[in-house]
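We emphasize that the prediction below concerns an isolated chain of 517 residues; any contacts that depend on oligomerization or on bound cofactors are therefore not represented. The input was used exactly as deposited, without trimming of termini.
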Amino acid sequence: MKEFPVKETGRIQPITIPPLFFVSCFLLPVLGNFAVALFGSIMSSITMNSIEQKIYYGMLTQFPMLYYFINILSYAVPISLMVYYSFPIYRMNTYKTKAELEKIKYRVLNLPIFSAGVGFIGWSIALILGILTFYVANVSLTDFSMIKMILGNVLYSLLCFVFIFYSLDEINRRKIIPSVFPDSKLSNYKSIKMSILTRIVIFYLTVSITPVVFLCFIIVTIIQSNNIQFPIISISIMVLFFLLLGITLTILLSKAYSIPIKEMQLITQNVSEGKLDLSIQVKSNDEIGFLGEKINEMTESLREKEFIKDTFGKVVDPIVRDHLLKGNVNLGGEIKVATILFSDIRSFTSLSENMNPGKVVELLNIYFDRMSHCITKEGGLVNKYIGDAILAIFGVPVALQNHAEAAMRAGLMMREERNLLNKELIQMGFPSLHTGIGIHTGEVLSGNIGSKSRMEYTVIGDSVNIASRLEGLCKETGKDLLISGQTESKLSKGFTINFLNKVAIRGKLQEIDVFYL
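Result of the prediction step, given as a token string:
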């Protein structure tokens, strides 16, 4: 066994493929052509009459160089092309660049159809050159002799194609493709696409046309040997009719499978892109129909799950939703350093006393929508709405490189957005809003709080209380954005910050530095 490295995404992955499989890639086409040539020689020796043998051997004696030329062009050249095409596969362990690897993968996918096609073309060239040779030498063949030569070469072309294609396709499927494409993503590589129609046509060539051509060859030989009167044109028309009928039925059969499979391909492609609005029209109760039903059930299930996920993301912040859906649903938490932003509407109780409850809800919804956008834009988490207040967290559960600065940018954006919103609210008949924002950085306990049957992701601790107290100080100081010294120490020089005072926070023994913007 040989170890062949495959350089994927910057690392080396070993590919273990028996050397026999690599050798088979270029030996099988050679053996296939040799076997067909041997079969043709035996067929010719059995079926050629004395006159035909005399003509053929006379041509060989008279034009020996032409005979060698035909063999080189129709036999040696195609085999050389097959070996050349498959040889890079054997050198898989020596490639140095990604481009070389892509070339190898491309040839692995195309190897069966390329080699089989070259073999078929080689034998077709032999037929054409053979006919031209008799024409140039001014040698006339009887109708039966010409038909035998044409049928024989067509038979050899088909046999060569079928043998090479199926043998290399089997080797590819069994070992080479699974090893060269461990991720099974063959559609990412540009190659000759072997559609269902193509494969069924090849199968039809194998089980129908090839035996028919062989049978016609034998019948013509028997008729010629026994001087039987034979209506060539009529029988040829009948054979052609049945061949065309077979091809038509083959195409219809392939479409019966390819059309629903293409629909499934379209559905699965849309599903991979997040489009779940399509479904398959099932038209049969066979395996294809069963698969279509299951794909429809799958997309319906995905639509339901996406709806639940989307709804869940509206009830809780999408950051929390994704955090919980990753399996973080156990009660408890962990100590982390984060920045807490607490915002509240000033004198909202008195504002709402003279408003219809429906208008109050409408006003809050407009306000929360605009403020929440400012928070999420900076990577923050809207943890909860408490009446007319907003509790936002920066740094948990998703880490931020500098959560203090992110919270500051969000707070400044909220203040600017509030001013713009007030102009709109006045035009809508609502009163303008005045808010206070408090920001503090410190340790919090973040996690799921509650019971086993109902829980909530949140943060608790002294840092949350300080942010709330800072927001409360906004009313007393006449400022609308206050931050603690702990937050100020984490900020860069890009912010214009003013020291307010050392302030005693309720519940804290030591005073804290308070700054305003």
